[in-house]
UniProtKB/TrEMBL annotation:
Keywords: FAD, Flavoprotein, Oxidoreductase. Pfam families: FAD_binding_2. It comes from the Bacteria. Residues 6-462 form the FAD-dependent oxidoreductase 2 FAD-binding domain. One of its GO terms (molecular function) is steroid dehydrogenase activity, acting on the CH-CH group of donors. The keyword RNA-binding does not apply. Its cofactor is FAD. It comes from Leucobacter denitrificans. This is FAD-dependent tricarballylate dehydrogenase TcuA. PANTHER family: FAD-DEPENDENT OXIDOREDUCTASE 2 FAD BINDING DOMAIN-CONTAINING PROTEIN (PTHR43400:SF7), FUMARATE REDUCTASE (PTHR43400).
Length: 487
């Protein structure tokens, strides 16, 4: 059996659907989205994410107008956010990737970010202010780069994309796994798939790969990521296993991104091994200290706002003995816990010594660490949770750069955490139109890629910029693929 389509999209999450919808708008007539998951598991990592989008904006009035009506009523007169400029976004990308992000892709992501959000709004996506704000005398100040999230979170986003696709006549075929890409170093002409009825060929004028990273494969984590990564929990879909990425590389596609890196964040140590939801995220670490099982601190908990550090903090935890750590807080952290902590049951005690005994750490070691931290807090700098306030722990190694408050107001709390990987950074190399480049740096005709299968990030990434990337480059890849298909 053989079928023919203008555009075949491999992967049914946001990266795939953004490309498929853009291809339809650009004139492609026969479009199919191939998804190996069953229908009730479609959506990749989006299904398990609370979800946000990083975009440039002009501040409070600009973003308030984008919020859905119910939240506007709730936040009217209380909503505040500083502008987030193109220069801010570009600086964040350059800094956290240590200057290694592809300059053309970075520039395109920044320049097109707001247009991408406006396009989604026109399509029918609706928005909430989703990040936890800081309450300053009744005014809620949101972190400037990461305000907008879709109504319904990641699952709501996926279902809205599918609804839009259905209205455009885009076919979604689930329980169907790509087993081969038809083509060579210069040209791709379709895919071979394994569906419920067996193996068959789909001819395509263009193919867009949006099947995610390789993080759900323990074998590939062991192959590419740091030692011990095969034992890490997976904060996302079990279906993102990387075989389509390998197929493209075998054709001669070039690679990019950091192959020994990925998005890894701290989560509850008792979380499931895979398909972890947001209730296990543990992102309040800037407002306390984190210690390993020896009672030692091991990273700068407050280097930046957590939206710039959470995706690398999981690696710091994973490197500790037994791959676990404990987040330690006192009562001054109340009000700084993200919503996910509501689902947690911390260990509590009236003294640090008692807390140490309850969590299995040598009490003398933990008391020493807490005392060293407390004695280093720079109380001459005012505390301000709405900005990176520079209130540090003087001379402490590792440093504690912001929001330092002595841990001295019991009862004290401890949360046991581990590191979980969300998506891998190594992937295919593309140009700004989503065309996959071969190792001779020429586009492989008929082959495009979008989403986590593309290697764009190094060391770290600004939170939620991956979702914006999916729409920016999905729009470009879909439009370019439709044009190529129509020739």
């Amino acid at each position: 059996m053989s079928e023919k389509y203008d555009v075949v999209v491999v992967g049914g999450a946001s990266a795939g659907y953004a490309a498929a919808v853009a291809a339809s708008h650009a004139g492609a007539e026969r479009i199919i989205v191939i998804e190996k998951a069953p229908r009730d598991e479609v959506g990749g990592n989006c299904r398990f994410s609370k979800m946000g989008f990083r975009t440039v904006h002009e501040g409070t009035d600009d973003l308030f107008e984008m919020l859905n009506a119910d939240q506007q009523d709730e936040l009217r007169g209380k909503f505040k956010v500083r502008p987030y400029t193109k220069e801010d976004f570009a600086s964040d990308l350059d800094r956290v990737t240590k200057g290694l992000v592809d300059p053309e892709l970075a520039r395109t992501l920044v320049e097109d970010s707001r247009d991408a959000i406006d396009w989604m709004t026109e399509l029918g996506h609706k928005w909430l202010a989703w990040q936890q704000p800081v309450d300053r005398d009744g005014v809620l100040e949101f972190p400037p780069g990461t305000v907008l999230g879709p109504v319904g979170g990641g699952l709501g986003l996926v279902e809205q994309w599918i609804k839009i696709g259905n209205e455009l006549g885009i076919e979604l075929r689930t329980d169907t796994r790509v087993s081969s890409i038809i083509g060579d170093f210069n040209r791709v002409t379709g895919v071979i798939v394994d569906g419920p009825e067996g193996r068959y060929e789909i001819e395509a004028k263009t193919v867009i790969l949006a099947s995610g990273g390789f993080q759900a494969s323990a074998e590939r984590r062991a192959r590419y990521l740091p030692p011990g990564s095969d034992l890490m929990k997976v904060r996302g879909s079990r279906h993102n296993t990387g075989e389509v990425l390998d197929m493209a590389i075998q054709l001669g596609a070039d690679t990019s991104g950091q192959w020994q890196g990925g998005h890894a964040s701290p989560i509850d140590a008792s979380a499931p091994n895979v398909e972890v939801n947001n209730n296990v995220n543990r992102y309040a670490y800037p407002y306390g200290i984190s210690v390993n099982i020896n009672g030692d601190r091991f990273f700068d908990e407050s280097e930046r706002h957590r939206t710039y550090t959470y995706a690398k903090t999981g690696w710091a935890v994973a490197r500790q003995p037994d791959g676990v750590a404990f987040q330690i807080y006192d009562q001054q952290a109340n009000g700084m816990y993200p919503d996910a902590y509501r689902a947690a049951t911390p260990v509590e005690a009236d003294s640090i010594r008692e807390l140490a005994e309850k969590i299995g750490i040598d009490p003398t070691a933990l008391e020493r660490t807490v005392n060293e931290y407390n004695n280093s807090v720079n109380e001459s700098v005012p505390y301000d949770a709405t900005v990176e306030d520079g209130r540090n722990a003087v001379g402490l190694t590792p440093p504690h750069s912001n929001w330092a408050l002595p841990i001295n107001q019991g009862p004290f709390r401890a949360y046991k955490v581990t590191g979980a990987i969300t998506f891998s950074f190594g992937g295919l190399k593309t140009n700004k139109d989503g065309q996959v480049l071969n190792t001779s740096q020429k586009p492989i005709r008929g082959l495009y890629a979008n989403g986590d299968i593309v290697g764009m990030f190094y060391h770290n990434y600004p939170s939620t910029s991956g979702m914006t990337r999916n729409v920016v480059f999905g729009g470009r890849a879909g439009a370019h693929a439709a044009t190529e298909a129509g020739r």
